[in-house]
Amino acid sequence: MRRWKHVFKLDPDRDIDDMALERICLSGTDAVMVGGTTGVTFDNTVDLLSRIRRFEVPCVLEISDREAIVPGFDLYFIPIVLNAGDPDWIVGHHHLAVKDFGPMMQWEQIVAEGYVILNGNSSAAKVTRARTELDTADVVAYGRMAERLFRLPVLYIEYSGTFGDMELVSRTASSLEGARLFYGGGIDGADKARQAAEAAHTIIVGNAIYENLDRALETVQAIQDVEKGCL
Ligand SMILES: CC(C)=CCC/C(C)=C/CC/C(C)=C/CC/C(C)=C/CC/C(C)=C/CC/C(C)=C/CC/C(C)=C/COP(=O)(O)OP(=O)(O)O
Ligand SMILES: O=P(O)(O)OC[C@@H](O)CO
Ligand SMILES: [Mg+2]
């Protein structure tokens, strides 16, 4: 996970045909993450996992619903929304899930993500009642809390559905000393992928898969170009 530069996020609540799924899984992306804010069920998650498992790409579940925790993923990513207005999305659902699953959890498969949600119009912001009116200093402070207070391995800056402020992302990444900065939101092609990859450690491409697959696939090569430029 610490070496991932590019991840595709597939939503179990959205349709993807076999050909498109094959192109995603064979694209050269570092991993496929399964997740979404609404409409994620046990059944649609099992279905997507079994289709992805025809390929060798690492496959992780980002849990957003306790009813849709499916065995068989390589890793489980657990969002903790640091700027949630409703504490259930910081510790509440997690507490109930650990109460149910605690005895059978393989903790080495668990990756906790400190989320900061910055697009107030996104489903994730609405569900968690996120306080999105934040400036760079606020987000840097959340980053320091994530890695220093809570020892989280990942800070996820989430602009889901819109392309964010890369200056803010870059300054936050620079302030982290060990945690990885994941950036997701509005990466719809190579140009935005390059900008995001210059600011963050790992970029996540979601909606573009469903909106323009060819352009979404170009983001993988764009990351490789940024990497070569850094050598
Ligand atoms: C045997 C077995 C199965 C063992 C498994 C054990 C295991 C892994 C247990 C897990 C225990 C645990 C701590 C679970 C957490 C439970 C939980 C529900 C936590 C809350 C997560 C959370 C804060 C969700 C809020 C929403 C959110 C941040 C979702 C993340 C994904 C996201 C933002 C997607 C974007 O959504 P999208 O649908 O694309 O949005 P748009 O419509 O805007 O595009
Ligand atoms: O869907 P987009 O806007 O690409 O965002 C990706 C991801 O961060 C969503 O959780
Ligand atoms: Mg989405």
TrEMBL record:
<dbReference type="InterPro" id="IPR008205">
    <property type="entry name" value="GGGP_HepGP_synthase"/>
</dbReference>
<keyword id="KW-0460">Magnesium</keyword>
<comment type="subunit">
    <text>Homodimer.</text>
</comment>
<feature type="binding site">
    <location>
        <position position="37"/>
    </location>
    <ligand>
        <name>Mg(2+)</name>
    </ligand>
</feature>
<feature type="binding site">
    <location>
        <begin position="206"/>
        <end position="207"/>
    </location>
    <ligand>
        <name>sn-glycerol 1-phosphate</name>
    </ligand>
</feature>
<keyword id="KW-0808">Transferase</keyword>
<keyword id="KW-0479">Metal-binding</keyword>
<comment type="similarity">
    <text>Belongs to the GGGP/HepGP synthase family. Group I subfamily.</text>
</comment>
<comment type="function">
    <text>Prenyltransferase that catalyzes in vivo the transfer of the heptaprenyl moiety of heptaprenyl pyrophosphate (HepPP; 35 carbon atoms) to the C3 hydroxyl of sn-glycerol-1-phosphate (G1P), producing heptaprenylglyceryl phosphate (HepGP). This reaction is an ether-bond-formation step in the biosynthesis of archaea-type G1P-based membrane lipids found in Bacillales.</text>
</comment>
<keyword id="KW-0443">Lipid metabolism</keyword>
<protein>
    <recommendedName>
        <fullName>Heptaprenylglyceryl phosphate synthase</fullName>
        <ecNumber>2.5.1.n9</ecNumber>
    </recommendedName>
</protein>
<dbReference type="InterPro" id="IPR038597">
    <property type="entry name" value="GGGP/HepGP_synthase_sf"/>
</dbReference>
<keyword id="KW-1208">Phospholipid metabolism</keyword>
<feature type="binding site">
    <location>
        <begin position="156"/>
        <end position="161"/>
    </location>
    <ligand>
        <name>sn-glycerol 1-phosphate</name>
    </ligand>
</feature>
<keyword id="KW-0594">Phospholipid biosynthesis</keyword>
<dbReference type="GO" id="GO:0120536">
    <property type="term" value="F:heptaprenylglyceryl phosphate synthase activity"/>
</dbReference>
<keyword id="KW-0444">Lipid biosynthesis</keyword>
<feature type="binding site">
    <location>
        <position position="9"/>
    </location>
    <ligand>
        <name>sn-glycerol 1-phosphate</name>
    </ligand>
</feature>
<comment type="pathway">
    <text>Membrane lipid metabolism; glycerophospholipid metabolism.</text>
</comment>
<dbReference type="InterPro" id="IPR039074">
    <property type="entry name" value="GGGP/HepGP_synthase_I"/>
</dbReference>
<dbReference type="Pfam" id="PF01884">
    <property type="entry name" value="PcrB"/>
</dbReference>
<dbReference type="GO" id="GO:0000287">
    <property type="term" value="F:magnesium ion binding"/>
</dbReference>
<feature type="binding site">
    <location>
        <position position="11"/>
    </location>
    <ligand>
        <name>Mg(2+)</name>
    </ligand>
</feature>
<dbReference type="GO" id="GO:0046474">
    <property type="term" value="P:glycerophospholipid biosynthetic process"/>
</dbReference>
<feature type="binding site">
    <location>
        <position position="186"/>
    </location>
    <ligand>
        <name>sn-glycerol 1-phosphate</name>
    </ligand>
</feature>
